[in-house]
Amino acid sequence: MNNFYRLPAEWELHEATWIGWPFNKYDWPGKFQLIPWVFAEIVRKIAEGEQVYIVVQDENNKQFALKCLTKVHAPISQITFVFAKTDRNWLRDSSPFFVKNDKEKVIAIRFNFNAWAKYENYKLDRKIPQVISSVTNIEVIDANYKNKLVTLEGGAIDTNGEGTLLTTEECLLDDLVQTRNPGFSKKDYEEVFKKYLGIEKVIWLKSGIVGDDTHGHVDDLCRFVNRDTVVLSMTKNSLDENYKILNENLEILKSTKLSNNESLEIIEIPMPEPLYFNGQRLPASYANFYISNKYILVPTFNDENDRIALGILSELFKDRKVVGIHAVDLVWGLGTIHCLTHEQPKE
Q: In terms of pTM, does the model score above 0.70?
């Protein structure tokens, strides 16, 4: 096997973005009717700058998607529908990781997907890497370690494209709750990340935000915005359940070096006020933004911190338009924009 793979940063040029059209009402109980219109707005923006592949369940699902997209004036010529039965819609996590080899050829690395070690409906989602490969003709390689396919989701990690990766101990090392790979140590993960993703340095944060049912995904918490800068979700409210968690992660980042031994710049981004629905705290976070070729799509929550978060990201991404996507209803599905999308890098 070629020993050189590199996981590109999300801000590198995309060939396309993958997303699944909503159909599973159980992901947004009581709010499902609103969700397709949020998806339509997400797709409309992304499609202005790149191809969008939309996974649909059947012809009815496709026609409904087409109706919604046409009504919001999405550029239909930029959209390709792919028929595939899935369990849910969180393509960030069920898709393969697209890496580049030493010839800059894109290859798909398939990890096992088990619905965050929490839900039973994942056997169709597990086939997403093969679906994508059949459409794109991209070669799929299995991420095997110690004779077993490693379990990993896209939202569990974030990278600067130059050998440094962010993740959390809560997500990957907890052997009691939502265990992905029983018995795995930091060293085991670091060997897997190096072999298949070209990672030289792993930054291990402690815990993810409260309300995240993935048990610690980093894409609700901390994200790279360029090769040596991250944004970190923070709250000034010492009574908030996230206060201690976020400050602990801040201290870890302050003492961190990148893979090239350079210092890391940390930009604090506020959390929205706690958001609840049906008695449950939701994982509302501005860190769950998606970097497309033309836009930074940021979830917003009818909160006074919306404009502050958008302003911070606008200063950091001067080459793209930073826009808010209303996500108060979307986050009832326990994820927002980044969780739903997956970039396919351009060769």
A: yes
